[in-house]
Amino acid sequence: MSSMDQPLILGIETSCDETGVGLVRGCELLGDEVASSVDQHARFGGVVPEVASRAHLEAMTPTVRRALDSAGVKLADVDAIAVTAGPGLAGALLVGVSAAKAYAMALGKPLYGVNHLVGHVAVDQLEHGPLPKPAIALLVSGGHTSLLLVRDLATDVQSLGDTVDDAAGEAYDKVARLLNLPYPGGPPIDRAAREGDARAIRFPRGKWGDGTYDFSFSGLKTAVARWVEDSVRDGRELPVNDIAAGFQESVVDVLTRKAVDACLEHGVEHLVISGGVAANSRLRALAEQRCAEAGVHLRVPRPRLCTDNGAMIAALGAEIVAAGLPPSSLTLATDTSLPVDRPLAA
Q: Which example biological process does GO assign this protein (predicted)?
């Protein structure tokens, strides 16, 4: 079946601070527009839910319009609406789901409430084609750090491990604050680390060899905080670049080691890394090295597709439609803690 014969899916993402709208046919990305409210949250050092919700309200209609224009299609051409139903911030999710319901009712088209986390995996298909079955997915973002066994994006996603405290992206934000680097912390720490020596300071590796696929970054964050406090107390100049490099090496060392181990244990030859932290240069480099050594094929979407966007929701919606699953009801509810083993919310 050619891409033109496949349904056109409109995806809406509002789980946190990005209003994302994407248009997808099969594995072809036609339009992808994002309106971010990150600058409005920067002075608070983190996302303010009420501010995010208001920003989604203001951005929704213009972002949908831009996505349609960039794809060269009309709203009437859309065959189905996919929207993030969870997990995420309650108010933010509600804006997106309400908008999706309105579009579905106005167009007389089916509505699909989908899982934000699985969307991060599905988006890789827009760059590298259909996902091999099975695959291991390492999802690394501001709110989530998870290892998944993906046998089928629409129907069979299993959690192998998750973070027991801070997610990796959350730890980046907190350490950036300790080093007086801008929010969000991922990009500035990545830049600083390139100028530092990752061997100068060895920080702890949380849950390094505990026999699970879970993650923990709270202790690492505390170790960095104590190192900074001791330096300030002793009047030493902070080696910001070395601290950033040592911290980052600790994070990516654990992430890549556990991800490759999961591939080997489950006999899976393909690893997908996704989520906002997947844009990190050191994570990509170390993952490439370790996957090559283990004979594992690595797939990482381009940075634009790693962060929250509507394309990933449309991509998952396309998989669910292709699988013939029933659409969600117009009474679809949001679920702030929607489990990853439910790609379709309801």
A: tRNA threonylcarbamoyladenosine modification
| Residue 174 domain boundaries | 135-300
Q: What is the pLDDT along the chain (346 residues), one digit of tens a residue?
A: 455 689 999 999 999 889 999 999 999 999 999 998 666 766 767 677 788 899 999 999 999 999 999 999 999 999 999 999 999 999 999 999 999 999 999 999 999 999 999 999 999 999 999 999 999 999 998 788 999 999 999 999 999 999 999 899 999 999 999 999 998 999 999 999 999 999 999 999 999 889 999 999 999 999 999 999 999 999 999 999 999 999 999 999 999 999 999 999 999 999 999 998 999 999 999 999 999 999 999 999 999 999 999 999 999 999 999 999 999 999 999 999 999 999 999 7
48 and 143 inside one domain: no
C-alpha span between 287 and 65 (Å, rounded): 38
Q: Establish whether 190 is an annotated binding residue.
A: yes
143 is in an annotated binding site: yes
CA distance 302 to 167: 21
Q: Is 308 annotated as a binding residue?
A: yes
280 is in an annotated binding site: yes
Total of domains in the chain: 2
Cβ proximity of 205 and 254 under 8 Å: yes
Give a yes or no: residue 346 inside a domain.
Answer: no
Overall pTM surpassing 0.85 (yes/no) = yes
180 marked as part of a ligand binding site: no
Q: Are 27 and 129 in contact (CB under 8 A)?
A: yes
CATH number of the domain where residue 197 is located: 3.30.420.40
